Every structure is written in C-alpha cells, then in structure tokens.
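Re: Re: ligand-bound prediction request (bumping)

Still looking for help on this. To restate: I need the protein modeled with NAP bound, output as structure tokens. Inputs repeated here so nobody has to scroll up.
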Amino acid sequence: MAEQTTQKRRCALVTGGSRGIGRAICEELAQAGFDIAIVYAGNEEAARETAAQVEKLGASARIYRCDVADAETATACAEQVLADFGGVWALVNNAGITRDTLLARMREDDFDRVIDVNLKGAYHMTRALTRSFMRQRGGRIVNMSSIVGLMGNAGQANYAASKAGLIGLTKACARELASRGVTVNAIAPGFIETDMTGQLGDAVCERYEQQIPLGRLGQAQEVAKLVAFLVSDSAAYITGEVIRIDGGMAM
Ligand code: NAP
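Reply:
Sorry for the wait, this slipped through. Here it is.
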C-alpha cells in the first residue's frame, strides 16, 4: 500500500491580494499548492472575493485588513499570519499605489504616501518576517517593482523613486538572507491591465501600446505565473534578480 504523506501545505502572504495583479497571484499560488494570507487596505468585498476564488481552488485563505505603510499594523499583521498558518514560505510584497502628477505640482504628502506604501510597506512586512525566514532556513520573497523604477516616467517621480528603492531593498535583503536559503527577487512589470492602469483612459493606453514591441498591455495572470515560478523550488538558484515582464517595453 502506498505510504500516505501528510506534508504540511506552505503559506504565501500576498499584500494587495484583493485586486488586480495581487488577486491573480493569490489564485496562481493556490493552484501551485499554497494556502494564502490575503492582505488588503480597505476593500473587504474584493478581498473576500479573492478568498472565495482561492478556496474554490482547494486552498485555505484568510483575509487581513492592514495598511502596510504603518509599521505597527504591518508587524501585527505579519505576526497574526504566522500564528494562523504556522509559518510563511513566500512573502509577495505587491501592495502599491500611485499619486501621479508633475514634480513641480507634487505635494510632499503625495510623495511620502507613495514611498510609505510601496517601499516602506515592503520593508515593514519583510522585517517582521525575517526572523521566521531565518529560522526556517528557506523561503521566498518577491517584491513588485515596475519598469518605471528602471526607466523613470514623467509624472511619476514618487512612484519611480519607490519602485527603484524596492530594487535596492531586494538586492540588500538577497545578500542578507542568502546564507539561510531564502531568495529575494523583484519583478518589474510594464503596463498590466488592472484598476491602476484603468484610471489612465483609452487614449493613454493606446499611446503606451505603441511603445510596447509585443503591441498589447500585459495581463495580471502573466505576472502571477512569473511569481509562481520565483516562489517554486525550481527557482532556488535565482536571487537578487530583477525580472522585467513588459512585452519588451523597457529593453
Ligand atoms: P491595483 O489593482 O490598484 O490593486 C492595488 C492593491 O494594493 C489592492 O489590493 C489594494 O487593497 C492594495 N493596497 C493599496 N494600498 C495598500 C496599503 N496601504 N496597505 C495594504 N494594501 C494596499 O494595483 P495593481 O495594478 O494590481 O498593482 C499591483 C502592484 O503591481 C503594485 O505594487 C503596482 O505598483 C505594481 N505594478 C503594476 C503595474 C500595472 O500596470 N498595473 C505595472 C507595474 C507595477 P484594496 O483593494 O483594499 O484597496
């Protein structure tokens, strides 16, 4: 008779898991055998919908309302996830916002808020889980950067700075955690169809499409499949890397 294995399922914590790219990541990782901790800012209905999709795929899901920009809240959230799931194998720092305008008009609070959510949010969640990652001697961290962090973009000084900062954070953490078998990588998507790019309007999207060699915007699921690869055992020898997924836009 075949021996029954009762291997514990791994948990993935996905910030910004309620919508867009984050939701696609939750679904893809559920399909890959992970249980999912979904962190969201305030859209509970969307978070519940993601959780329902994850459960349909046979995985467990829990939702956590948390502003990742707030150090105390983010730390408490990470600790709650550890308590609920007994560990986190993969942390996906995906939560992000934009507050676009030209630099001359950019208010300091809009600059700070974007840095606080996009960059400090990843720092808060990573710091809160670092000891656990080191103890378990393995794991995966994926930070959602952007090609805007590599190329810059007019009207997005705050966003570009936050996404470039994430690349530095990724490489520093990759060096710190490598000896414990934890890999840390960044993904730099181009223009992906979500609520974030939906705000731009058809004319702007068409202009961007003309700058994309593959001639179309990307899909959230395409980014999610890359995350699934990076958190898999097959990606054990990749760390400190920034992978563009942009239809060739930033090459
Ligand atoms: P989206 O559709 O606007 O979704 C944003 C997600 O982040 C939501 O789940 C939102 O939660 C969550 N969130 C926002 N502020 C938060 C906070 N303070 N604390 C915790 N969660 C927060 O965005 P998206 O297009 O999927 O983008 C996801 C990531 O990919 C972002 O980091 C973005 O910068 C990056 N990216 C996107 C593109 C693109 O073209 N779409 C390109 C490059 C990089 P609620 O639902 O509760 O509001």
